[in-house]
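Appendix B. One record, verbatim.
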Amino acid sequence: MKALVAALLLTALVGCSSSTAVPQTTPPPPPIPSTVGGTVPVPTNTLPTAKPTDAAVPPQVPEEATAPPPATAGPLSSTNLPAPEKLGSGWKTYNDPGGAEVGFIGNNTWTRRRDPHQASYEALPSGCAGSVSGSLPVPAHALTGSYRTADAQPATALLLRFKDSGQAGQYFAGYQARMKACGTGGDLSVKQLWSQDAAAAAVRSYAGAESYVDLSVVRGSTVALLATTSAQPDSQADWARSVVPALEAVID
């Protein structure tokens, strides 16, 4: 799966000097940084209370998780995700244990609440040769469900519930525009498999990493994004079409 995005914040300290023996006040030491994903240091400062309004703008990196996330997100629960057998023979739900490298603590179930701003931003393609600008609405709720395919490959569904269908449609359109503009030649390459008014499928290929099938669906006030690792992603167009009704039946 696509790795989680983290931002590196640097603090510069400037010293003062004087030729006279004027007592100097020693500045307090800088805060000791925590880590996100066990790799990137970030200050443990308090997050702003203003509600984010643009999913295309990187969110401030949250403080390191100290407790498991809830299994629900507002009105969203496991009932809004397809049963594994609806996605393919041999599919199963997966209780992701989490860990420091992935930035969350497992909650002993297969669904977990996500920060809406962080989830909607990280879902957008990044590292592409081509790009599209413009703001996108931030969902009110975000829920992730983890699966394993018949051949034990990881698969993840992300539900983004917006305040209304207009915002959901706006995010879906912006998501599709960014996927189509991505092209090839960057750290991420995107190949379109097919596209409809309310659903689309593509293959994401990260440089030096595995490729996976990316299925996106909008229905009512909800956008669903389903991604699964595949050894032959280019041959999964028919499979992606076949599971659209299973998503449409439960996500909104």
